[in-house]
Amino acid sequence: MATTLLLVLFGSVSLALSVPPIHTQPEQVHISYPGVEGSMVITWTTLSVTESIVEYGQWGRKMFQFTAKGNSTLFVDGGREKRKMYIHRVILTQLVPGTAYLYHCGSDSGWSDLFYFTALRETWTDGPRFALFGDMGNENPQSLARLQKETQAGIYDIILHIGDFAYDMHEDDGKIGDEFMRQVESIAAYVPYMTCPGNHEEAYNFSHYRNRFSMPGDTESLWYSWNVGPAHIISFSTEVYFYLGYGLELLFKQYSWLKNDLEEANRPENRAVRPWIITMAHRPMYCSNDDKDDCTKFESYVRLGRNDTTPVAPGLEDLFYRYGVDLELWAHEHTYERLWPVYGFKVFNGSTEEPYVNPKAPVHIITGSAGCREKHDGFIPKPREWSAFRSTDYGYTRMQVINSTHLYLEQVSDDQYGKVIDSIMLVKERHGPEAWN
Ligand SMILES: *[C@@H]1O[C@H](CO)[C@@H](O)[C@H](O)[C@H]1NC(C)=O
Ligand SMILES: *[C@@H]1O[C@H](CO)[C@@H](O)[C@H](O)[C@H]1NC(C)=O
Ligand SMILES: *[C@@H]1O[C@H](CO)[C@@H](O)[C@H](O)[C@H]1NC(C)=O
Ligand SMILES: *[C@@H]1O[C@H](CO)[C@@H](O)[C@H](O)[C@H]1NC(C)=O
Ligand SMILES: *[C@@H]1O[C@H](CO)[C@@H](O)[C@H](O)[C@H]1NC(C)=O
Ligand SMILES: [Fe+2]
């Protein structure tokens, strides 16, 4: 009895005296493209306060020839422990496009491992190569090892993570987010890791998402656009249609930003240089899954908007059609699905023989099968006529925007050890709304 009491007392005393470990070693390193040629943002985390420095140099030249300084923001998780972390950001500028750099980040209190990246070019001869996926978790991230190997082998220039990270970043007082960001360091520290928010980022008003990522623009990574090769890429939040409690005004702000951005991208001089307009966002307008999600309904909020709000909230299908968006990338459903060119639930093939040669409506791809603890989603037995190909294998998509007329897509099955299970060449001799005629 007395011993137990003593032990209990002793235990609580030592607990009260314990201090959190000093944590000045940089971790969770990831990079993103700020949308200005010759630049790159390096982002990382420490739990103790330190300086924010990146030392870097061209591959094969003097190591750490250049130094760039940035700053950190204190991010406090919304959970019970109110865990604190410092998110460091440094912008590198005046990089030579197409050139490889070696870098490490941190401060004199501790440096990260050594990483490398190639500065993005906005003009290419063979076109940028992407890996695309959504819905990857800390638990069961089945595609990650294959993506790590391929990224480090240099077959991708850019990764697009189309929402739903970690499952969920805020859980266990944010430690799930930390561990997930450590897991993806092996892809995200080497090529720009470009993101959009998904429903799993919702906690505390998307604060983990807004704090941990560093996307272009001034919306805390919620919506933004950027250019690479012959493509203009628009990332946005479908979540503004669902979490109205965080502000209906966000939905309208985003909508008018999208409209302006599309207007600008369609100015003849811009569309001539960047003919491909590609959107990425989490919840699709169409899908043939059996889980009663938004995309399973004819009246999808993302597609048609909402009329139970004041004012009524406009949907996005018409907007994207009017501005001649070529390709729409989605996730959320834990499956892969490719659609025939579609608008208003109707198929608009280029021709029956070659549906993706000069299609008369946007093409949609849903790629949310990277792997997470929620496993797979199911499909309805009989797909609608707009559904072209479906797979429940874990995997991810590769995309190459080859030139102004050709864009290649293929689906990799991780379950089948990297087998390509689907591919299309999207060919467009004309872009913009005129292409629909
Ligand atoms: C942190 O760095 C960013 C980007 O360089 C800069 O815009 C911002 O003003 C800096 N903030 C502080 C507090 O120095
Ligand atoms: C949620 O975050 C957004 C982006 O920072 C902000 O504009 C909005 O006001 C926030 N909503 C609430 C309810 O705090
Ligand atoms: C509002 O939208 C729903 C579908 O989401 C539709 O059934 C209903 O008729 C619409 N109501 C009005 C007043 O337009
Ligand atoms: C679109 O093209 C595909 C492939 O040829 C064909 O199977 C499908 O029936 C076509 N759909 C329509 C509505 O023409
Ligand atoms: C684009 O690439 C395709 C496939 O490599 C090629 O057939 C086509 O001629 C190229 N088009 C232009 C305009 O360079
Ligand atoms: Fe989701």
UniProtKB/TrEMBL annotation:
EC number: 3.1.3.2
Boundaries of every Purple acid phosphatase C-terminal domain copy: 361-423
Superkingdom per UniProt: Eukaryota
Catalytic activity annotation: a phosphate monoester + H2O = an alcohol + phosphate
The keyword Iron appears for this protein: no
Enzyme class, spelled out: hydrolase
Domain Purple acid phosphatase N-terminal: 26-118
Signal sequence extent: 1-18
Chain ranges passing through the membrane: none
Domain Calcineurin-like phosphoesterase: 129-336
Keyword Hydrolase: yes
Entry similarity comment: Belongs to the metallophosphoesterase superfamily. Purple acid phosphatase family.
Protein name per the record: Purple acid phosphatase
Organism: Chanos chanos
Encoding gene (name): acp7
